[in-house]
Structures are given as C-alpha cells and as structure tokens.
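Consider the tokenized backbone below.
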C-alpha cells in the first residue's frame, strides 16, 4: 500500500473553525507545486470535509501515491478555490509485513522522491524518482545507481515510478539523466542496454 503524501507541516496553534491550517508547504512537495501557501486552510479533500489534522491525514493517505485529489482551499485573504494535487508517497515508520515489489527493470526498482523528506532530507524534495534497489550483477550496479535520482528517461522527465517503468519498456538502449542524493545540483547521464 502506497499512502498519499501532501508535504505540509501542520499549524498546532491553528484557530478554530472549519478546515485545517498549516504553516509550511515543504519545498518541492506536491503541496508547494500546487500553490498552497502558509495561512491557507484546507477545508475538504475530494468533497470530504476535514476539520482536524487527523481527518486530513486519513483522506490524503486514502488517496494513494500518484493519484490526484481535489482540495477545497480557503486562501489566507478570503477567497475559496478548488485545487488539484497529485500526491506523492508517504513512507510510514511502521514495519511492512508483506509487500509486492515491482520486478527489476534493467536492473532497477524505483520509488517516489518524497520518501527522502521523511528520512530527514533537509533540501527541496527533488523531481524525478529515487533508485531504491539495484540488481546484483546488472549494468545498473556497475554504473553505481543505488540511491541516485532519475530525472529523465531518454530526455523525458519522470515524476512517478509508473512513468519511469512505462518509459523503460522500450527496446534498445535508454539514456538516464541522474542526480546524486548527495549533490542534487550535479547531474550525469548513463546509458543502459
């Protein structure tokens, strides 16, 4: 189960009333990309009213990673808007008893970069997908792709694991544009056959 992740920090001293307020949209998060700002109040998720932090968490988690939710927002200065947001992946801290892993594709398994924020990543949540597993003996292992961030496949941006796997299905060589988790500003290219 891949629970949804919005990427906000709650305002624990929020005023009473309908909705949930927050004081920050994490840099690079789905919330920031959708234009949510400090002082906004989230009134509903997919037409389901939210009045407490737990209501909002439940509705976002229920949406599942990669899906688009519609947030009803009360802007800081009064206007109401409905904003579509594609949620990323929340990586729960509890142990997963059983899960079905995607098969390796050209020696790689990837995941949402949003899980970096939940590991204490101190910078903007980067675009692309994170390499979670590298198959032993593969070309991907030789290229040292473990924990790299894949920004593009053959020049096309990838934002979700599903997009990555879809673009990797083609025959022949593929060129990956990568960023390092250590140096997000540094990119390199690798070709996999």
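A designed sequence for it:
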């Amino acid at each position: 189960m891949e629970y949804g992740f919005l990427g906000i920090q709650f305002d624990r001293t929020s005023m009473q009333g309908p909705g949930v307020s927050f004081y920050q949209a994490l840099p690079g998060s789905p919330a920031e990309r959708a234009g949510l700002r400090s002082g906004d109040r989230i009134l509903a998720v997919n037409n389901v009213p939210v009045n407490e932090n737990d209501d909002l968490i439940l509705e976002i988690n229920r949406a599942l990673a990669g899906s688009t939710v519609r947030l009803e927002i009360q802007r800081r200065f009064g206007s109401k808007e409905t904003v579509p947001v594609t949620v990323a992946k929340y990586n729960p801290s509890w142990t997963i008893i059983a899960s079905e892993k995607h098969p390796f594709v050209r020696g790689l398994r990837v995941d949402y970069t949003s899980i970096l924020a939940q590991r204490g990543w101190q910078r903007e949540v980067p675009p692309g997908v994170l390499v979670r597993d590298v198959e032993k003996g593969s070309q991907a292992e030789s290229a040292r792709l473990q924990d790299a961030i894949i920004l593009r496949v053959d020049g096309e941006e990838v934002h979700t694991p599903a997009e990555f796997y879809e673009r990797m299905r083609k025959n022949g060589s593929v060129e990956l544009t990568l960023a390092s988790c250590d140096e997000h500003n540094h990119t390199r290219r690798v070709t996999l056959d």
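The longest strand covers residues 68-74.
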